TrEMBL record:
It comes from Nonomuraea zeae. InterPro entries: HAMP_dom, HATPase_C_sf, HATPase_dom, His_kinase_dom, HisK_dim/P_dom, HisK_dim/P_sf, Sig_transdc_His_kin-like_C, TCS_sensor_his_kinase. It comes from the Bacteria. This is histidine kinase. The keyword Aminoacyl-tRNA synthetase does not apply. PROSITE patterns: HAMP (PS50885), HIS_KIN (PS50109). It catalyses: ATP + protein L-histidine = ADP + protein N-phospho-L-histidine.
Length: 378
């Protein structure tokens, strides 16, 4: 069916209006005809009175059939004319109602056509545009507002993607540029010895390891945002214990006191991702701390849900900057030149979302941060 003859909403509404008028009109006509058939009187013809010779009045038999059939024939003709006129009136009203239905449907659907046209013209280059529908607060305006909300989310997602790509490119390009400079300087020095070249290779290898960690973090983030294929029972206490084992050396070097309370807590999830979530939280608590500070790790049931809670001392974090900590490549001002890619907490947020877990964060008034992740019950 071509676009010109396809069953559009306007055409379907027009046919619906016309069909409703035709159906109700036909029903009304039938009822009216039945009523008229019962209301019109049946004329009974009496024979003429004739006196007999004795003075008595007698009524002869009705020999004249035409006198009886005349009124009945007239009554039938009246009903026929009434039915014909009613059918013609019904046909005319059906035609008129279809035309009016076409006009009314066009006016009602005009805002919808405007929405369709405007939405088709919006692309990735002008996602900032909105429908901004005016008029009564009806279903069409609700549809326009819903599309505006969707466009807003798409615009935010595109902007976040562009920022992510730009930040990832910067994070990957910086160590590559540094390694290239090291190698070029070493090769340009004709008097460089074995020890000098070895030192350059070691520094390049360290930079390569940083790139490897960054790429692994990017892959973990992408995997978390994709969602989970299968769920397994994950012991949060075991995941936290493993994370603490990897961070104890760094905590001891910084002089941090580690307090541990690992209660039974089993949650459905991906063991690798949950382990990464715990490791990132512990690593973040150790790294963004102060000399002689502390780190607390707790697992157990919180409100009937298995939970992991990591708290730490450290610098004061303004409440309005807490959400920014979970953005990719965000680094506190004091850690701009330090070790880390700025993906740790963003990976935590992505893993929590993938597990349908509740992530809560509170900045401590004395300094530091408390992060709680509550998983669904197993």
């Amino acid at each position: 069916m071509t676009p010109a003859t396809r069953w559009t909403v306007r055409l379907r509404l027009t046919l619906l209006y016309g069909g409703l008028v035709l159906g109700t009109g036909a029903l009304l006509l039938c009822v009216t005809y039945v009523l008229a058939d019962h209301v019109l009187p049946f004329v009974k013809v009496e024979p003429p009175v004739q006196p007999d010779l004795g003075g008595a009045i007698t009524r002869p038999a009705m020999p004249v059939t035409g006198l009886q059939n005349g009124p009945a024939r007239q009554r039938a003709e009246d009903l026929r004319q009434f039915l014909t006129a009613s059918v013609l009136a019904l046909a005319l009203m059906t035609f008129v109602s279809a035309g009016l239905g076409w006009v009314v449907a066009g006016r009602v659907l005009r805002p919808l056509r405007t929405i369709i046209t405007t939405t088709r013209e919006i692309s990735a280059r002008n996602l900032h545009e909105r429908l901004a529908a005016q008029g009564p607060d009806d279903e069409i305006k609700d549809l326009a507002d819903t599309i505006d909300g969707l466009l807003g989310r798409l615009e935010a997602a595109f902007q976040a993607q562009r920022a992510f790509v730009a930040n990832a490119s910067h994070e990957l390009r910086t160590p590559l540029t540094f390694e290239r400079s090291l190698l070029e300087i070493a090769l340009a020095d004709p008097g460089a010895g074995v020890q000098d070249l070895r030192a350059v290779c070691e520094r390049a290898l360290a930079g390569n390891q940083e790139q490897e960690r960054l790429i692994e973090a990017l892959l973990t983030l992408a995997r978390s945002q994709r969602g989970l294929d299968r769920l397994h029972d994950v012991d949060l206490a075991e995941a936290a214990s493993t994370a603490l084992g990897s961070a104890r050396e760094e905590a001891a070097r910084r002089g941090l006191r580690v307090e541990v309370e690992l209660g039974a807590a089993c949650a459905p999830g991906d063991p690798t991702l949950v382990q990464r979530l715990a490791a990132n939280l512990v690593d973040n608590a150790v790294r963004h701390n102060m000399a002689g500070g502390w780190v607390r790790v707790w697992t157990g049931l919180d409100g009937g849900r298995p939970a992991l809670r990591v708290s730490n001392s450290g610098p004061v974090i303004p409440a309005d900057q807490v959400d920014a900590l979970f953005e990719p490549f965000h680094k506190p001002a004091a850690d701009r030149t330090g070790r880390g890619s700025g993906l740790g907490l963003s990976i935590v947020a992505a893993i929590a979302t993938a597990h349908d877990a509740q992530l809560d964060t509170w900045p401590r008034a004395e300094g530091g941060l408390q992060v709680r992740v509550r998983f669904r019950p197993a």
